[in-house]
Amino acid sequence: MSVFTPLTPDQVGSWLKRYSLGALERLEGVAEGLQNSNFFVDTVHGRYVLTVFEQFNREELPFFVNLMAHLARHGIPCPTPIANRDNEYVGEIAGKPAIIVTRLGGRSLTQAGVAHCAAIGTLLGDLHVAAQSCGVRQKHQRGAAWRRETAKQLLPLLAADDAALLRDEIRHEAQQVSGELPRGIIHADLFRDNVLFDGERVSGLLDFYFAGVDALLFDLAVAANDWCRGAEEGGELDAARTVALLNAYHAVRPLSEREHLAWPAMLRAAALRFWLSRLLDAHRPRTGELVARRDPDEYRRLLRGHIAANRRQVWIDPPAA
Ligand SMILES: Nc1ncnc2c1ncn2[C@@H]1O[C@H](COP(=O)(O)OP(=O)(O)O)[C@@H](O)[C@H]1O
Ligand SMILES: N[C@@H](CCOP(=O)(O)O)C(=O)O
């Protein structure tokens, strides 16, 4: 996250009185992330993370908070939301909705190896299975309809070759049949900075604020695009890491023949999703105390790499059931 809403120790100290977490010992703004304002909060009882929501109103939060609570109960290493003395997860600070969750140990990786990618495959499979019994549902907010609408807004702002790429990609996506793929709640943003590792063990899965129902394969493609991207400038995936990710996932939730066939298009859809959101951020920058930005060109290169690989038929295929 970035800090868009600065908070003082006094503000947080008096807010904490609504919880049974003890008095504030230390408050620190977190520089990573893009969507919300996050603070590490240490109290006499433990270590927590306070998230102030910049883009959601109160009514939109119960889905995410209940999903995290459900997954934590089912052994997924995600933060556990803490209820206040009125037994509510969602509170308010600085006029904005806020929650406090357990702070997990470990560190996010800048470079992932084969063993890390296998751990991510297992984690994602476990997440998809555990989420099946979650009582709350909502649509994935960055799905195909969002991509179409966002492309329309961005097209007039882009250079001719980018606009042509975007138009072709939206057309390509419309020709796919992803509606027939297995669906469920997906994390939808499983990048390296949203996972904490302790050695080769996953100690934390963070940032559920894009989660929602969509094709499960989309989640795997988002993860492959970030965790398995090769070191070179183009958009090819590293074979060993991709195979490790896919095989580990397949061992938990076997991929179907239909998913196998849909994989190349799904990698493109997942690359398109982040090219679009990064372009939007670049064209409408937000202000704040510590604001992180991500490079749209990285995902344009990845998208072009997938299109070129598609023409040459050099996909690293997932195992088929
Ligand atoms: N529960 C947590 N335990 C440990 N670190 C956390 C936790 N929540 C957030 N963080 C830290 O804060 C950063 C930003 O959090 P994130 O949820 O990704 O924010 P945003 O929603 O703004 O993207 C993470 O990369 C991680 O370093
Ligand atoms: N993973 C996305 C950005 C989403 O922001 P996050 O900080 O909430 O993960 C990207 O890399 O574009």
Can you offer a commentary on this structure?
The structure is a single chain. The chain has 321 residues and is of the alpha+beta class. It has 2 domains: 9-102, Phosphorylase Kinase, domain 1; 114-312, Alpha-Beta Complex (Aminoglycoside 3'-phosphotransferase, Chain: A, domain 2), CATH 3.90.1200. The chain is 42% helix and 14% strand. The protein contains 9 helices and 9 strands. The chain has helices spanning 9-15, 61-73, 114-131, 144-154, 160-174, 216-227, 239-252, 257-283, 296-312, and strands at 24-29, 37-43, 47-52, 91-93, 96-102, 183-186, 195-198, 201-205, 212-215. The protein has a 5-stranded antiparallel beta sheet, covered by helices on one side. It has a two-stranded antiparallel sheet with strand order 6-9. It has a two-stranded antiparallel sheet with strand order 7-8. A hairpin with a 3-residue loop joins strand 2 and strand 3 (47-52). Helix 4 (144-154) packs antiparallel against helix 5, helix 4 runs parallel beside helix 8 and helix 8 (257-283) runs antiparallel to helix 9 (296-312). It starts with 8 loop residues before the first helix and ends in a 9-residue tail after the last helix. The structure holds adenosine-5'-diphosphate and ligand LJ64HWYM. The site of the ligand N[C@@H](CCOP(=O)(O)O)C(=O)O has 11 residues, from helix 8.
